[in-house]
Request: fold
Amino acid sequence: MIHSVSILGSTGSIGRQSLAAAERLGVRVAALTAQKSVGLLEEQIRKFKPAYAAVYDKKAAADLRVAVADMDIDIGEGMDGLRHAAALTDAEAVVTAVSGSVGLRPTLDAISQKKRICLANKETLVCAGSIVMKAAADKGAQIVPVDSEHAAIFQCLEGRRDQLHKILLTGSGGPFRGWTRAQTAAVTPEQAVKHPNWHMGAKISVDSATMMNKGLEFIEAMHLFAVTPDDIQVVVHPQSVIHSMVELVDGTVLAQLAVPDMGLPIQYAMTWPERVPSPYERLDFWRMRDMTFEAPDLEKTPCLALAMDCARLGGLAPAVMSAANEAAVALFLGGKIGYNEIYDRVAEAVQRAPNVPDPTLNDILAADDEARRLVLQR
Ligand code: MG
Reply:
């Protein structure tokens, strides 16, 4: 159980739920950051009274300084502000709830301070998993996953890491499960952000629709649990009741089940290794109808297939893919490209960007920039 926390990305969906969990659990809030939602961040600052806050957007940071001029708080801006919030010595843990590879350097800063990482930023492990996991091991920093699938696997493996045979990574299949490329051609941003089971931010909702999210989680799981692509099987489970499973060496399968509410894995990342009561709805097996399972259709979910290819390629390929996907999804959400073009642009960036084995942090940051450029300047 932690007693103090900094939350990166506090105005997003996971960030807001993390603040609610901190309030409920009596965890003190040391720092908050947001990309540009100054109004909500101001409300959060007045309620939780952190000593530090940062806004990524510099103009929005200036607005926040004016808005909270009556308060005793330092306001930072840009990447430096994010990194300062992550490394603030006054917090035992950092919830990394920012979206995208912007979370990479702050996460490494928090690790260097030996903080618990409540990891809700999958792109960080996708683009630099080897570097991040090695830094955490060297420093003795705990990484507790918040992503529901990885939280499930983490819980199933507690005390039995050496008994793992295979990870069964479940996913709902998203709102367009079974749709052909011809059928998804006209999908609008409004349709893509409506997920049947989970309420999430726009970027991750689109990723869930394309199943790029499952691909990112595939790579995230490789790093978090030190397994190879061959050790992970993706299982489509539309009801999202089982959050993932592990098969042990003797063939025993352990699953973690709960209502699909991110509040639960957020709470557990804060209370781990303890468990405390939560206010969430309970599963009622008398009322539960079907739980069904199927193989993913990789022809119809090319983003998932591409991510699994990039997982096997290694090197810079996952970083290029993830950054290109961020740029392509932003274009789609902005009405600049069609739904199917998300895959086309990401695949082209992966094909065109050079790869190297065992990239350094600088290699990864440069590849991230280049991938975004390839998507935007096409
Ligand atoms: Mg997930």
About this structure: Residues 147-149, 217 surround magnesium ion (CB under 6 Å). The chain has a mean pLDDT of 97.
